[in-house]
Amino acid sequence: MNKLVDDYIEKQKSPQREICLQLRGIILKTFPGIEEEMKWGVPTYAKGKFYVVSLKDHVNLGFSMEGLSEDEQKRFEGSGKTMKIIKICSIKGINESEIVELLRLVCGKFPTRLYLSQQLANRRRSTKMKLPLKGNLWRHGDFMKFWVGDTVTQFTGQITALALPTLAILTLEVTDFQLGILNTLGFIAFPTLGLFAGVLLDRTKRKPVMILANVIRFVTLATVPAAFLLGALSLYHLYAVALVMGVCTLFFDVGYQSYLPSLVNKEDVVEGNQKLQTSASAAQVIGPSAASGLMGLMGAALSAVADLFGFFVSILMLVSIRKQESPPERHLSRGQGHFFMELKEGVKVITCNKLLWTQAGCTAMGNLGGNIFGVAILLYAYRLLGISESIIGIAFSIGAVGFLVGVLASSKITKKLGFGRAIALASMTSFGLLIVLISGVGYPVVVMGIAFFISNIGNPIYNINMVSLRQIITPNRLQGRMNATMRTIIWGTIPLGSLLGGVLCSSVGLVTTIVIGSVVGGFSALWVILGPIFRLRKCPEPALDEPEG
Predict the structure, then answer these.
(1) Which of 163, 184, 225, 228 is CA-nearest to residue 392?
(2) Which residue of 44, 72, 96, 499 is 20 to 30 Å from 395, comparing CA positions?
(3) Strand pairing category for 59-64 and 50-54
(4) Quick count: other Cβ atoms within 10 Å of Cβ 264?
(5) Which of 98-107, 266-275, 491-500 has the weakest average pLDDT?
C-alpha cells in the first residue's frame, strides 16, 4: 500500500473516509498487486485506469473509458470522454459486486498479469538512458516523417537566422537600435497573440494550422531575394518580413509542441523530444558554417533561398502523415465553448501549477538575458572585432557542438544529478557567454566559439527536460492553451530583451550590454533552485484528463 494514499484517506471526514477505505479495499482485492499512487492529488490505480476522489458530500470512483463501446460507457456517470465516474454518497450505497464488474469491464482488454507486467516493463524502460539512436520511435512511420520535416527546417532555418541580421547590418547599415527593432518584430506576436493562438489551436486540429503557417512563411521569405534582385529591398521590407514570419512561427510552434503528444504515446514523448533536440543540435553545429559559406558565395539575401527548400520539405512531410488527428475534446461543463473562458482556463493551467509557473519564470528570464546578449554579439563581432561574414558562422558552429554534447549527455546527467538539479545546472551555463569578452586578445572566432560551446551544453539538457515536463503533466485537451500561454510568457521576454539590447548598445556600449545579458541569463537558475522543480528526482507521471469532481 502507498503511504501517501494512506495519508490522503486519513485526512477525509466521515463518511467519505470510510467510503474511500472500502473502495480501496475492493480495488486491491479485485486486482492483487495493482500499482497504487497519488496523481492529480488523489489515489489512482494502474496508471490512471481508476481513481478515488473524496468530495464535499460524496466520493467519486473514476474509470478510464479507453476501449469501451458507447453502450458500455452508458453504465457510468459524467460527461467526460476519457474518464467517467460512479457517485457514492454513503457506505450503504456501495454495491461491491457491481463495482467489481465495472472494474473488470474496464480492465477486460488488459488481463491483470499482462497489464501489471507491462507497467513494470515500462518502469524499467523509463529508467534506462535513451540515446537518440535508440528507442521505439524509429519504427513509428508518422513520427519519422515529422522528424525529417523538422530536421530539414532546423538546418535551413539556421541560414535565415544568420542571414537576415547580417543583411541588415552589412548591406542596409542599420543602427544598433534599428537592429533591436528588427529582432523585436520577429517575436512580438508571442506576447500579443500567444494566448489567442492557444485557444484557437485547442479548438481545431493542429496539423492543418502548421501546414498553413509554413506555406505563408514560404511566400513571405521568398520576397527577400526577389526584392534584392529587383533593387527594392529596404529596412521596412525586412521589418514586415520579420513580423509576418514571427506570427506564423507562433502558430506553428504552438501547434508543433501540442501535436507531438497526440502523435506518439505519452511514454515516448521524452524520446521524441530527444530526437527533435538532436536535430536542432546538429543543425546548430553545421548550419552557421553553411550559412557563412552561402553568404560568402551568394550574399546574405540570396542565401535565404535555402530556407524556402526547408519549408517545402516540411509541408510535404506534414501532408504525408497518415495518422488521423483526433478532433479537440469539448468540456462544456467547464466553460469550454466560450472563447475568453477557454483563454482564462489556459492561463490558470500555468499560474495555478507551481511546476509550470516556475518553468515559465526561469525560461522567461533566460530568454530576456539571451536576447539582450544576442543583439550585441553580432554588432560586437562585425564592428569591433572586424570578423568577416564568411567566417562568423564558424564561431557559432564551434559553439553548437555544445548542443550535441548536451543532447548525448542529457539522460546520463539527469539520471546522475536528478531531474531538478540537472535543470538548475543547465540554466547556469549562460555565465559562460562572458568568455567572449576576451576574444579581442586574439583568435576571436575560436574564443567566441568556446564561449558559445560552454553556454550551449546546457540548452538541450534544459529544453528536453522542461518541454517534456510540461507536455507530460498537462492533459491533452489543454496542450494548445498551455503551450500558447507558456510561449506568451517565455517568448514574450524575447522582444523585450531585443529592444532593451538595442537601447543598451546605444547607451552603455556593446561590452556592458554583453555582461548584462550573460548575467541575467545565468541568474535565471534561481527560479529552479528556489522552487519545486529543484526537488524533483525524476519527471512526474503522465497526466490524463483531470478527474471529474
Answers:
(1) 163
(2) 499
(3) antiparallel
(4) 20
(5) 266-275
Cα dihedral angle (109, 113, 119, 120), rounded to 10 degrees?
A: -160
- Contact call for residues 57 and 133 (beta carbons, < 8 A): no
Residue 84 forms beta bridges with which residues? 63
Q: Is the peptide bond before 15 cis (omega within 30 degrees of 0)?
A: yes
**Cβ(547)–Cβ(51) under 8 Å?**
yes
Q: Per-residue pLDDT tens for 405-458?
A: 888 888 889 888 988 899 999 999 999 999 999 988 888 999 999 999 999 898
DSSP secondary structure letter of residue 540: P
What is d(CA 210, CA 476) in angstroms, rounded to the nearest whole number?
A: 18
Q: What is the CATH number of domain 3-127?
A: 3.90.1150.200
Radius of gyration of the chain (CA): 26
Domain residue ranges of the chain, discontinuous segments joined by +: 3-127, 136-318+339-535
C-alpha–C-alpha distance, residues 100 and 103, integer Å: 5
Cα→Cα distances 419→235, 289, 350, 360, 539, Å: 45, 33, 20, 17, 6
What CATH number belongs to 136-318+339-535? 1.20.1250.20
Burial (CB count within 10 angstroms: exposed 0-12, middle 13-18, buried 19+), residue 352: exposed
| Crossing angle of helices 235-263 and 444-473, rounded to 10° | 40
CA-based angle 386:170:392, to the nearest 5?
45
Q: Is the pTM of this model over 0.85?
A: no
**Rounded CA separation 376/373 (Å):** 5
Coil, helix or strand for 53?
A: strand
- Residue 15: all three cell numbers together: 463518511
CA dist., res. 348 & res. 63, Å (int): 26
The answer to whether 218 and 245 have CB atoms below 8 angstroms apart is: no
Look up residue 145 and give its three cell numbers.
516523417
